[in-house]
Amino acid sequence: MVDLELVCFQMISNAGSARSSFIEAINEAKKGNFILAREKIKEGEESYLLAHKVHSSLISKEASGDKTDVSLLLVHAEDQLLNTETTKILAEEIIGLYEVIRK
Q: Which of 49, 52, 55, 84 is the most exposed place for a label (fewest CB within 10 A)?
């Protein structure tokens, strides 16, 4: 497998793990388990950071003059990263709403 493909799959895998944790956090908040919900957010942030570091390495490489060929796989990996970030933002807002409702 080419290096770029490995990088893309690392981004996709870590972003997917992060997104799953963020969704689990929402589900825990729905049940009133706010401590576990916050733990799931932290868990998701760790996976997201791994995906982001891989992506940053691609950006650094390109900034130093080593151009990256854009492929459908890379576009998909970046899309997964962006959607995961959005999911995190919404998960935190939803958890906050559940906390207000439960008071």
A: 49
Contacts 24+ apart (CB under 8 A), 42-50: 44/17, 44/18, 44/19, 44/20, 44/84, 44/88, 44/91, 45/18, 45/88, 46/18, 47/14, 47/15, 47/17, 47/18, 47/21, 48/14, 48/15, 48/18, 48/84, 48/85, 48/88, 50/10, 50/14
Distance, in Å, from the CA atom of 45 to the CA atom of 72, rounded to the nearest integer, reads: 26
pLDDT digits over 37-77, tens only? Answer: 999 999 999 999 999 999 999 999 999 999 888 999 999 99
Domain boundaries, given as residue ranges, for the chain:
3-102
Residues serving a catalytic function are: 76
Looking at residue 100, its pLDDT comes to 96
Dist CA 82 CA 28 (whole Å): 23
User: What is the third-level CATH fold of 3-102?
Assistant: Methane Monooxygenase Hydroxylase; Chain G, domain 1 (1.20.58)
